[in-house]
Design a protein that fits this description.
By secondary structure, the protein is mainly alpha-helical. Helix content is 74%, strand content 0%. The chain has a single domain, classed as Four Helix Bundle (Hemerythrin (Met), subunit A) (Up-down Bundle), CATH 1.20.120. It is elongated, with a radius of gyration of 16 Å.
């Protein structure tokens, strides 16, 4: 296993900012907003945990590939669930961005399976998978920035 994702610190900071943002949203609250905040905080925690799991993988361990594939699948599922959330009207674009993040992560998971699922390691697929993962996490960061700059 040649490439394991090492971007934990960047994403942890981004997710913490997202959590703080959601916990400090405005005075006139949309009735759907509390549920949305709670769900986003839960997904944020799950994404942090899964990213940490990727960071802590030992590439020399016999089960590292299985753990990698399982974790990227879990990240894709988590982002799918995040994209399926009912988004309050004030944050309507966040739903579109979450769908994009999910699509990128789903592509990443497929590419990782292609890279490691065969008899030989496919370096090109692994490289593309890592880039799609990074793009997905950037999209999640963009959601946080969007939520911070969009008034209710």
């Amino acid at each position: 296993m040649k490439k394991i994702i090492h971007t934990k610190e960047f994403f942890v900071k981004s997710f913490l900012c997202l959590s703080l943002l959601l916990s400090a949203c405005g005075k006139k609250e949309d009735p759907a907003l509390p549920k949305y905040k709670e769900s986003m905080e839960a997904y944020t925690s799950e994404i942090i945990n899964l990213s940490s799991s990727l960071e802590s993988l030992d590439p020399e361990a016999a089960d590292s590939v299985d753990k990698l594939l399982k974790t990227v699948d879990e990240l894709a599922a988590t982002l799918h669930n995040m994209a399926a959330l009912e988004v309050p009207a004030a944050y309507s674009d966040a739903g579109n961005m979450a769908q994009e993040a999910y699509t990128l992560m789903d592509d990443s998971a497929s590419l990782y399976h292609s890279a490691y699922g065969g008899d030989t390691y496919d370096e090109d697929s692994a490289s593309q998978a890592q880039q799609q993962y990074l793009n997905s996490m950037q999209k999640v960061t963009d959601i946080g920035q969007y939520l911070m700059t969009t008034p209710e």
